[in-house]
Amino acid sequence: MRCAPKLATSTPISPFSLDDFEARTGSATSIIRTITGLYLRHQPAPVPRTQVVELATAAGISAAAAQTAISRLIDKQVLANTADATLDVPPMARAMFERGSRRIFTPRQMSPNDQWCLVTYSLPESMRPLRHQIRKHFQQLGGGLVAAGLWIFPEYLRVEVDAALAALQARSLATLFTVQQPHFPATPQEAAAQWWDLEHLDSLHQQFLKATAGLNAGQTDPADAYRGYVGMIDAWRALPYLDPGLPDGMLPAAWSGKRSRERFLEFSSVFERPAKEFVASVLAG
After folding, report:
1. Average predicted confidence (pLDDT) for the chain
2. Which of 146, 184, 202, 235 would give a disulfide with 150, using CB separation of 3.0 to 4.6 Å?
């Protein structure tokens, strides 16, 4: 009889557990998490806590809320206290942000000829906690649930799927297939609507469009660009995970994802450099 693998707390699962999209977009915790991923993790030395608070207030967060959020992120091991009231980004969190950067800043969409990755596994009832963990991580990777124990992903997500299974100590329990073209039971659009919650994903894209409706490409003042850029990244960062980037032929005609991706890329190109200049001025103070 096969025993359920034990989920360790200090093994590679830890950086995956940090990929948490439950924090409310625009909240102090979410904003400082975004600032950490954008800027703090790239600093060669720990950053004074006062400067992190200054960056948070420049992004529209009160100083009191920033202090509370920093403490929460320390508890979540996204930040770490160091000597002299400074803050550092622990190695596991750095790995998470590095992995996230590939998704966030290079959003992908499948072409009709791209391959797919199918993942199948069968776990007994005694492994229910592991089934829950796999489901949670696969959903956050943009997987579609075809049937119990059978998931589908764009093939370009296979490496991340493989890493998630390994981190959950479940790689030996799953088989991955690379396939060229599924033969859908009905239309590709109907299959996508069954395997993914497209209504929810479309609503997330609409929320992003609403949250960024007031952005102005003429905001090139470093402080204004910084605030707009941080807010935009914070509103966007979960979308490239949850949305796998299905081909146009599987999406509804009124799909909001195309407009949100275009807006993200447009304003990223405008705001990134002046925002970085603003951060450099704060950290040099």
Report:
1. 90
2. 146
